[in-house]
């Protein structure tokens, strides 16, 4: 009797331990909203030439900036611990949109003015890879920017 009880308990435990998770994968928007993101790598390839690291030469005060995407299509850019200029605001707010896999971000304030649009090639809980293509006359530049969740 005791063996039957132990066997039944172990069988129940095994059944629950092996139960598949029915967790639905997060959408691109949910993944963007889940965490703040920081650029950790960026390369640029001009007219198909070898890619060049365009992140390493950036100032440390830029490398620690984070981007937090909000529900109301606002994106908050935070300066991180290092500011490039002490007068800079700690954070500024811009706008973002997502259409299919194309992410557009714009931040136009007195102290910060930038915009970029790129295709999300990869996004998961830890990594976002954004690819932008810029064409000017006969020059095509493809930039791959890696963001890491914070």
Short description:
By secondary structure, this protein is α+β, with helices and mostly antiparallel strands. It has 3 helices and 9 strands.
Beta-strand residue fraction:
over 45%
Q: Uncertain spans, ≥5 residues at pLDDT below 50?
A: none
Q: What portion of residues is helical?
A: 10-25%
* Category by helix and strand content: alpha+beta
CATH topology description: Lipocalin
Average pLDDT level: 89
Cα distance spanning the termini: 54 Å
Number of domains: 1
Question: How many distinct helices?
Answer: 3
Q: Any guess at the CATH architecture?
A: Beta Barrel
Protein name: Lipocalin-like domain-containing protein
Signal peptide: 1-17
Organism: Hymenobacter jeollabukensis
Keywords: Signal
Structure description:
- Keywords: Signal.
- The protein is an alpha+beta fold and 150 residues long.
- The chain has a single domain, classed as Lipocalin.
- 18% of the residues lie in helices and 46% in strands.
- It contains three helices and nine strands, in the order ααββαβββββββ.
- The chain has an eight-stranded antiparallel β-barrel.
- The chain is globular, with a radius of gyration of 22 Å.
- The N and C termini lie far apart (54 Å).
Features:
signal; Lipocalin-like domain-containing protein; 8-stranded antiparallel β-barrel; Lipocalin; 150 residues; alpha+beta
């Amino acid at each position: 009797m005791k063996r039957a009880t132990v066997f039944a308990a172990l069988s129940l435990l095994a059944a629950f331990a092996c139960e598949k998770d029915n967790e639905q994968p997060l959408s691109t928007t949910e993944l963007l909203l889940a965490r703040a993101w920081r650029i950790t790598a960026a390369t640029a390839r001009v007219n198909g030439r070898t890619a060049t690291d365009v992140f390493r030469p950036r100032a440390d005060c830029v490398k620690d900036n984070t981007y937090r995407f909000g529900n109301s299509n606002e994106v908050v850019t935070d300066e991180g611990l290092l500011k490039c200029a002490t007068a800079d605001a700690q954070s500024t707010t811009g706008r973002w949109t997502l259409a299919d896999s194309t992410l557009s971000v714009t931040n136009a304030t007195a102290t910060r003015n930038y915009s970029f649009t790129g295709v999300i090639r990869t996004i998961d809980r830890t990594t976002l890879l954004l690819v932008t293509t810029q064409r000017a006359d006969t020059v095509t530049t493809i930039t791959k920017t890696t963001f890491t969740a914070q």
